[in-house]
Write a structure and sequence with these properties.
elongated, 3 strands, 7 helices, mainly alpha, 2 domains, single chain, 198 residues
Length: 198
């Protein structure tokens, strides 16, 4: 029975791992979609950084999850992906749009949960048992490499946020009334050109 489930296990592993990695990668290019539009106004208003910067961070996390699943850590990666996709679905519902995409993400979350449960039942390759020596170091190195741009983007975002707080906007030109020719009312619309009307 377990052997008959190996094929769907591999299908879920490759599909979910590949989709997570490609979706995360595209967060930096916006070729598949305009990702910042999928962010709900509630979430966007609570963020201390811009929507595009936030999506870049999300992309790095998604790529890391994809690498974990593809590397064979399907139990951990499946549960993380399931929770992640459920959260994305809630965010999409909060936008008041994209309900069809939210349903798709719920279906993908169920698939990720199924992948994790199949792994627990002994289906498929177990990463720690079938991986040759030294591969764990490569996976750790890949995750560290993925964390470097995450820290870099986070530093840039924090710098931008501090810069925005220090930036002062020029005060808007105020209107001042003053006396003009007899029977006219003048308003100073700029420092050099008053506007008068009878």
């Amino acid at each position: 029975m377990t052997n008959r489930l190996t094929t769907p296990w591999w299908a879920l592993r490759l599909a979910l791992g590949g989709a997570a990695f490609l979706a995360g990668l595209d967060k930096h290019f916006n070729l598949l979609a305009d990702w910042p539009t999928y962010l709900s106004p509630i979430a966007a208003g609570a963020l201390p950084i811009g929507a595009s910067t936030f999506m870049h961070l999300i992309g790095i996390v998604e790529m890391a999850v994809g690498v974990v699943i593809l590397a064979g850590y399907t139990r951990l990666g499946g549960y993380v992906a399931a929770a992640w996709l459920a959260g994305i679905a809630i965010n999409l519902v909060a936008t008041g749009r994209f309900f069809d995409v939210a349903v798709r993400d719920v279906a993908m979350a169920i698939g990720a949960f199924t992948l994790a449960r199949l792994t627990e039942a002994g289906v498929g390759a177990i990463a720690s048992e079938r991986r040759p020596a030294g591969t764990n170091r490569l996976i750790t190195a890949a995750l560290v490499i993925a964390a470097v741009p995450l820290a870099s983007v986070g530093h840039v975002a924090a710098s931008d946020h501090r810069g925005q707080r220090r930036t002062r906007t020029k005060p808007s030109v105020k209107s001042f009334g003053f006396s003009g020719p007899a029977g006219s009312s003048c308003t100073e619309t700029s420092w050099w050109r008053p506007s008068c009307r009878n």
